[in-house]
């Protein structure tokens, strides 16, 4: 029986639990939290332990106290999960960077100009689509809304390709990757990106 949904439900009694659940090993945290609930209520079944806490305020207070008593241990487990996820992300990024470096070296050694030519093609295509988009707006040419959607999608795809070519030749950083993602999302759906930005602000 998956314990994460039960652990999330138990967060109603100790809200800090929700902050500990996440990552690929969240089940470990959930197991410990549910174990506390089972110990406090004397119920062997996770769902029965949850039901007992919901039915008895005194038990819920005991559960809160027990969670607080083991807060350091639970937080440490959650931190280990976050650390493991960061290490995985770093390994994936390093592998991708190594692949790009290998491809660059091979292109230099073989005098292959394919990537350079594609970079020029993507850039010219992007500017052509953007120019078309602006011309339609400025000239007030009546077009079907679907056309704007297609243009926006084309801009997003071409932007991603241009940024990908940039990374091939110059490499990338974590911040640059996030910025590239934001630019691509803006090109495809500017309304959604600006709304998200305003909400964060």
Which terms summarize this structure?
201 residues, mainly alpha, 2 domains, elongated, membrane, transmembrane helix, Bacteriophage protein, transmembrane
Protein described:
It is a single chain. The protein has two domains: 1-111, no CATH class; 113-200, no CATH class. The protein is built from ten helices and no strands. By secondary structure, the protein is an all-alpha fold. The chain has helices at residues 4-10, 16-20, 26-41, 46-55, 57-69, 71-110, 114-138, 145-170, 174-188, 190-200.
Largest sheet: none
Please, what is the average pLDDT? 72
Over all CA atoms, what is the radius of gyration? 26 Å
What's the total helix number? 10
- In terms of DSSP E residues, the strand content is under 5%
Secondary structure layout plus pairing:
Blueprint: H1 4-10, H2 16-20, H3 26-41, H4 46-55, H5 57-69, H6 71-110, H7 114-138, H8 145-170, H9 174-188, H10 190-200
Helix pairs in contact: 1-3, 3-4, 3-5, 3-6, 4-5, 7-8, 8-9, 9-10
Structure summary:
This protein has 201 residues and is mainly α.
């Amino acid at each position: 029986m998956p314990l994460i949904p039960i652990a999330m439900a138990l967060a109603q009694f100790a809200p800090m639990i929700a902050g500990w659940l996440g990552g690929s090993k969240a089940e470990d945290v959930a197991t410990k939290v549910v174990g506390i609930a089972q110990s406090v209520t004397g119920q062997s079944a996770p769902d029965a332990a949850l039901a007992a806490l919901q039915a008895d305020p005194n038990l819920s207070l005991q559960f809160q106290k027990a969670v607080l008593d083991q807060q350091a241990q639970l937080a440490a487990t959650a931190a280990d999960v976050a650390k493991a996820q960061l290490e995985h992300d770093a390994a994936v990024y390093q592998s991708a960077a190594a692949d790009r470096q290998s491809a660059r070296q091979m292109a230099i050694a073989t005098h292959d100009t394919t990537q350079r030519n594609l970079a020029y093609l993507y850039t010219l295509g992007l500017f052509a689509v953007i120019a078309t988009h602006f011309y339609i707006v400025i000239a007030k040419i009546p077009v079907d809304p679907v056309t704007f959607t297609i243009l926006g999608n084309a801009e997003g795809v071409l932007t991603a390709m241009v940024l990908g070519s940039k990374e091939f030749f110059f490499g990338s950083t974590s911040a640059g990757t996030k910025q590239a993602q934001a630019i691509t999302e803006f090109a495809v759906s500017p309304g959604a990106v600006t709304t998200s930005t305003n909400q964060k602000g």
